[in-house]
Design brief:
The complex is a heterotrimer of chains A (240), B (367) and C (578). Chain B has 367 residues and is of the alpha+beta class. Chain B is built from nine helices and twelve strands. The longest helix of chain B is centred in the first third of the chain and has 32 residues. Classes of the chains: A mainly alpha (240), B alpha+beta (367), C mainly alpha (578).
Chain lengths: 240, 367, 578
Amino acid sequence: MASVAEDHGHGDMVVHVHHQFENIDQQNESYIVGMWCFLVTEIMFFGALFIMYILYRWNYQQDFYGAHLELSQPFHMFGLQEFPIWGSINTTALLISSFTMVMAVRAAQLRQKMVVLKNLGVTCVLATLFLVIKFTFEWPPKFQHHLVPGPNFHPHAEVLHGAAPRASEIFFSLYFAMTGLHAIHIIAGIGVIGALMFLWNKGATSVTEDYVPTEMIGLYWHFVDLVWIFLFPLFYLIPA
Amino acid sequence: MGNYPMAPPQASNFAFEHDLIFYSLVVLTVIFTVIVGAFVLFFAFRYRQGNQVNRSRPFHEHLPLEITWSVIPLLLGLVMFFLGAKLFVNMRVPPKDAMEIFVIGKQWMWHIQHSNGVRENNTLHVPVGRPVKLTMISQDVIHAFYIPAFRVQYHVVPGRYTMEWFTATKPGEYHLFCGMYCGTQHSEMVGTVVAMEPKEYAKWLANGGNTAVPMSMEQAGAKAFSVRGCNNCHTGSDTERAPSLYGLFGKTRKFTDGSSAIADGAYIRESIFNPYNRVTQGYSYQTMPAYAGQLSEEEVLDMIAYIKTLGSPASAATNAPATGVMGGGVNPPKTPAVGAMGARESAAQPRTNLAVGALSRQNGEGR
Amino acid sequence: MSAPAIEASELTAPHEEQKNYLNADHTVASWLLTGDHKRIAIMYLISVSFFFMIGGIFAGLIRLELISPTGVLLESETYNKIFSAHGIVMIFLFLVPSIPAVFGNFLLPIMIGARDLAFPRMNLASLYVYWLGGGLITLGLLTGGVDSGWTFYTPYSSLYSNSQVSLVIIGIFFAGFSSIMTGLNFIVTVHKMRAPGMTWFRLPLFVWSMYATSVVMLLGTPVIAITLLLVFAERTLHLGVFSPELGGDPVLFQHLFWFYSHPAVYIMILPSFGVISELMANFSRKRVFGYHFVAFSSLAIAGLGFLVWGHHMFVSSQSMYQGVVFSLVSFLVAVPSAVKVFNWTATMYKGHIRLQTPMIYAIGFIGLFTVGGLTGLFLACMGTDVHLTNTYFIVAHFHYVMVGGAMMGFLGALHFWWPKMTGHMYNDTWGKFNALLVFIGFNLTFFPQFIVGFLGMPRRYHYYYIAPEFTPYHIMSSAGASALAVGLIVPAFYLVSSLRGKRKASANPWGAHGLEWQTASPPITLNFVETPIVTDEVYDFSHMDEYEQRRGTAEMTHPGEGLQQDKNLDIVGTKEDK
């Protein structure tokens, strides 16, 4: 793509403006509008799944309660019997990562390269932690208990906690579909944050002199977090 | 056939109201299309480039005009919406006294159960003048139970009961289609809806789904014997044209070539299909036509059973089969559900059904 | 790749062949790696034409098979695969991308005075994703085909069909992403890339319709993507959310499917509305009547389009009350549609109408779309929908809208902007004759289907021997299809042969109004030498040079004459010459 380095009178700021844009402001505004449009698409993408969840939760209320207990772990504190320990740790991890992302964007606006890199690094580590917990402590037990939908779905009665097998299969179908899709977004997020860190580290003017790319990736990351904020109570915290 | 209809028959309580709305919409469509078309063509002609006409003061915005042509379609639309919704609500709320019939759809047939246990496939018998409520479910994929003449259709969904109701108003036979694409033989998931007078329907239901009391093989054979005209030549005694068949079964027959055989079932079958293989002594070569390919094995078995009875005391009862039988050369339908019909019903059978049967068979052979 | 700089020689040496986007670079890589929206549009044009041809061949086979009540040469299974392939190819690979990806891509930046779309690389990516989707679908069709219809109703598609549903669904998934990328690009471009002076209400109506289309693409396509993905998961992993055997709800699939697929109808027809608005204004040489109403009716249709999906499901066991609401909203869609038709008609009043090829298509469009739209009322009306749904009436209705509407718009656009895109004029007499043939052939093909549908002929039927009274209508329809086929093949010849012809098009061969006619034909790579500044109103013919207007007529009637002087007069992307 043709990129023309131009000085558009922003003082010492020398940023790539792509050939199709008149100036840096137009380019940045286009990025922002584009990012929000993309997020709208993502909302519709997840939205269809949330609609399905609502319908089946409505149809199988007791069964969803029973099936969701399998996502919790024994926990004998604060008068509780069971608590979704891993899910809570993951939620906390993502919330903190959102905070560090905000700090990274702030630092990008102030052009503090090392602060940006540190905060983005923490974000990446927390995202990786999220995935590690999901893929070692959360999903494997479901495989062991034959809770994965499909021909191998024949769980023992005690892991269903009184839920009907058919309805639990739907619950776990939605669980794997929605958290799986979310995990794909986390992986993509780690990818773009990594790329962003690479550019910052290299000192590419497209990011160091212009905070908008960093802010856009931050926007995406907040969206991914926000989806989890909805997924967590819907799957882990179903009231009886 | 021969004349091609422009509209399906009106045969249910919904048909008239439906067609009233339909034709109102047709009129609306024609009026608007003609108005728009006429203006477009008129303008295209009158204001064509180079035509010297008054073009002064053209206007580009005209609020009253915009409001007019927004509001008029809106009002017309609301009227049509109201009429359509009213009919639809009526279609979805069956009367309490409706007679219930159960429909099961599966790839690729309709299975129907009447309340007294009578079952039929791909045919639905209903009484005229009485609300009928169909409770429907599918065993596999989604189907749709569609009777154009009744203007009713509803999906038949796996895992849940759906409903449609109607009151047939005109006796006759109507198409039954599967409306929802359901796989390879979707277009053959078709059948017939038979609307009958209530009395006939009651009789039909009482007879376990047969239009007449079932016939024995002998009775069926006697009927075929007469329908095919066998009795014209093979009478009570030997004639010049043909030997009598009374007391034939089990006797020894002598043939023109000097051989002989005992007249058993196999011999009778051969004599019907290929009479020239062995010709009875005293008769000429080509008197009787060969019936190979014209009679079904079923009919031949019935005839053998009938011939067995000739010459025995039972023959007196079945000797004179019903007269006045029409429609020679027509095979009885294969499906017993439609009825192993008596002579009376056969005469009353509408032509279309026979033609459809023939076509369907032809097609079946083609594939 | 690099953006070719605009050389000064272009302006100083008018008699040499000018540099334009087509001859700027001749390598294959310069096409496959281009960011130029015009080159991408040309590649899209070739691709959608290819798939249109494939879909057309399937249509021909369907019509051939239905001549006889007992079929002509196909097995039922093959027939089912062919009508499914026809629907899938025509909808996902032709109708949805046709006008937006070809003409929207080519014209939208030029019309608003931009050098390119906001995200050229994403634009190129959308083409590759489209090719990937098209390739997967083609692969699926070649390796056994798919027999579930383009609607993929569960549980047939998920558990019962033994065909290549999975592969084709993934193909559609990718094709969907292609249209999301296109839509996103358009929205950003319209919002942020307009030239100075190009206010929202100076936008050509084609841009308005593209904007409305993009909104629908952005909001609707993700839903079908995830839905089809779950059907895929149900087929391969038994992730049962749509099959009653697995506890799922088959009607939920229909809701999600039509939530996209009804708005998708507007993805197909709204761009055509935009094209027809352009044609009506430029060939009547008059501002579109009620510009604001036409512009906002596009948005109204796009908005209402998301609230009517349930009218596909009146008899599918959704609640009666749901049905009533959906029916009411469906009737409301008739209002903005009617507003458009009436405004186009009024545009012709006191115009200077030139009946050239694109205008014949536009007039044909109005006739066919009026019938197509009004027959939609039969299906929005619940009482009649019960009888007419799933029959040939519905087939006729949506072909009047999709073929009579979207395809006529596509052909009109092709004939209108062909000289701009290629720099060559085609034979107008051939074009006019052919437009008439398409119109007649189309009506002969699809009008009998209204009658046979009213009689009760269900759609997707291979045999109809049980009802031989349907035969004559099918024969008429097949005869019309032959005429229509000729009408669709002929343009390929005269358009392609025009590329070798000597009749070069000037910058503004029609004497039309709009920024795209102020740059050269074909345009230079960056569209304009310098960013235009818009000072006149949209479709303002009153200020156009009288010579310009007459030249538009002369160009078509006396090709070649006056071209020499045109060359000097051509204004290659300067400010408005007012």
